[in-house]
Write a structure and sequence with these properties.
The protein contains seven helices and 34 strands. With about 550 residues, it is mostly beta strands. Helix 3 packs parallel to helix 5. It is elongated and about 110 Å long. About 45% of the residues are buried.
Length: about 550
Amino acid sequence: MRKKLLTSILVLSMACSVISEHTAFAASVATQPAISTDSTETTDTIKDTDTTKNTNTQKSYSFKKNTFSYKGSSQSVSPLTNSTYTHADAFDGMYIFNGIDVSYHNGTIDWNAVAATGIDYAILRVGYRGYGSTGNLCADVKFDEYIQGAIAAGIPVGVYYYTEAISTDEAIAEANYCIEKIKDYNITLPVTIDFEPGTNKGRSYKANLSKTQATNQVKAFCDTIAAAGYTPAIYANKSDLTTRIDGASLGSSYNIWLAQYNSKTTYTGAYQQWQYSSSGTISGISGKVDCNFFYSAADSLTSTAPTGTSIASATISSIPNQTYSGKAISPAVTVRYNGQTLVQGTDYKLTYSNNTTIGKASVTARGIGAYRGSVTRQYNINPAKISSFKSKSASRQITLKWKKGSNKCGYQIFRKNTYNAKSYKKVKTISANTTTKWINKKLTYNREYYYYIRPYKTVNGANFYGSLTYLTTSTTPRNKKRTIRKKTALYKKPSLKGTKLATIPKKAKITCISRTYVTASKKVYHVTYKKGSKTYTGYIAGKTRLY
């Protein structure tokens, strides 16, 4: 599919059931001198010279009921390119179907003329995500025209969607977009995610996704499609299947559509379709068209379209913010549809994604039984609260120390200078998870300060914050041990109102902790006073005379 974004993409996958006998393929096809080579692969230089097998080299290609029964490395001639291709040993004795895939770049298509050639199937691009930073979901402008024409002409159809997702949530959104676009059509072949991030070097390419993350996104798309009752599939070339996503693992659960423009494939993993050229010709379409083989043990490609009531418009109950624990976080939810509470296990099943790490997690309810389709709700998993926050004071600075946060989060430190201040000001951001100390310098001596620290982590451009851990501390006074000149009241709060803890008599000894600025202009003393076996900590008036 190596065409520009809005002019490319294909996909098909395994689909099985029943279809009537195939009639003669009487297409007028132009002879192609050579096969295009996928730039991501090494060109296969094998020249096909064996003319003793499958010698259908004429423009009229007949295969009633696809009675091919190939043995090791057998060959066939494509009716779309008139070139010879060698099939992998894994497909010995299987039926081979010929198909095309199209998008808006193919222009106006005469589907009756296409059908008259005897083509087995067509895969249509349903849409794509823009490869710019916003990544808008878009429909192929020819999709409705194409699918209506193909179905009316009796051609079995599947669809594909070009992905630029950079998270599993975006992949799920793409799948749901497909489901919504195709729900009114008889889609009997796979719904495929077209994975080729290197084609346009767009947002998914620039996101530099890990192999695990990209694989999880493809899984999320396929699982959403499967939950809606369709057959999911994955389109990718050999390079991407081996380096960008785990093709071997995906191939054990989903259908793979391999793109490799050679005379034979060199991919060693499982696949069910092979896109072998983008230079085919067929009646009803002007210019070149993408060409595909589909391998099946059955002699048909038709499957049943999904049935049941879609729950795409159902609601999932709200989910409060969750706290990272290092384990999967799967909060319980309620699913309601048309005022009715659905039953988990009977009407739907739940799947969770991105729920083991900090960031946006999601829960998807997928219809079962009498229901189909899916609905998804997101929730936040925030960093765990900092469990220890301490200080060491000096006359003009305070050293803050804390316990390292989890899951490689950073830290933000806020401070206020007066007791009654309504807001804190951010004084430091530390991105390194291993940094657990900061010195706040150039402070006023003998003054109380109020801090809080919170962990944070940036995921896909959004910050997720943990709960706040507070600390009240101060710079040190010049003299801690003082004597009261005149008896005074010791209050619990710096407002000097409400609960009175004690009356400190004249000449009593106290220990000064610091001066507390209630407001910028009003200050009190924060002190401790010991009376017998009891020690009181509270506040006395700032005008109290001490020596």
